[in-house]
């Protein structure tokens, strides 16, 4: 008899390669199953970049309007945009890191908010000559 399985992990793997000292920009178009922009305006997002799972994050990006936390994610009707200024990336060490991007839905009537990892993968920082 075969064993049944339910997989609730919807995350997609996407490796990102950046150059040290350059501005990092990643614009994602979010579509629903009918290819219509999926509105994530009322969601919150968090992206962490780490050297390893037990290491302190290199940086954590937030969509919340809290500048001191690093408000570098903007979201809206059918899009998510992540940005990291060059004055931050110029201090990074080149190498291979890991990251994930989590979105949290708003709590709806009679339900809780849901946090789901949408993207994960390698975050590779290439060296730069001009700093």
SSE layout:
Blueprint: E1 12-13, E2 16-19, E3 24-29, E4 44-50, E5 59-62, E6 73-76, E7 79-84, H1 86-89, E8 95-104, E9 115-126
Key words describing this protein structure:
3-stranded antiparallel sheet; globular; 131 residues; single chain; mainly beta; Immunoglobulin-like; 6-stranded mixed sheet; 1 helix
Descriptive notes:
- There is one protein chain.
- It contains one helix and nine strands; from the N terminus they run βββββββαββ.
- Helices cover 3% and strands 42% of the residues.
- By secondary structure, it is mainly beta.
- The chain is globular and about 55 Å long.
At a glance:
This protein is mainly beta. The chain contains one helix and nine strands; from the N terminus they run βββββββαββ.
């Amino acid at each position: 008899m075969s064993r049944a399985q339910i997989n609730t992990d919807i995350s997609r793997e996407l490796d990102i390669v950046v150059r040290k000292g350059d501005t990092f920009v990643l614009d994602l178009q979010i579509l629903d199953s009918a290819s219509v922009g999926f509105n994530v305006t009322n969601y919150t997002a968090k992206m962490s970049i780490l050297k390893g799972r037990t290491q302190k994050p290199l940086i954590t990006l937030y969509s919340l309007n809290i500048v001191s936390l690093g408000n570098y994610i903007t979201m809206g009707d059918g899009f998510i945009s992540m940005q990291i200024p060059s004055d931050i990336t110029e201090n990074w060490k080149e190498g291979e890191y890991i990251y994930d991007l989590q979105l949290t839905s708003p709590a709806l009537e009679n339900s809780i908010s849901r946090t789901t990892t949408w993207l994960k993968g390698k975050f590779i920082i290439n060296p730069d000559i001009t700093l």
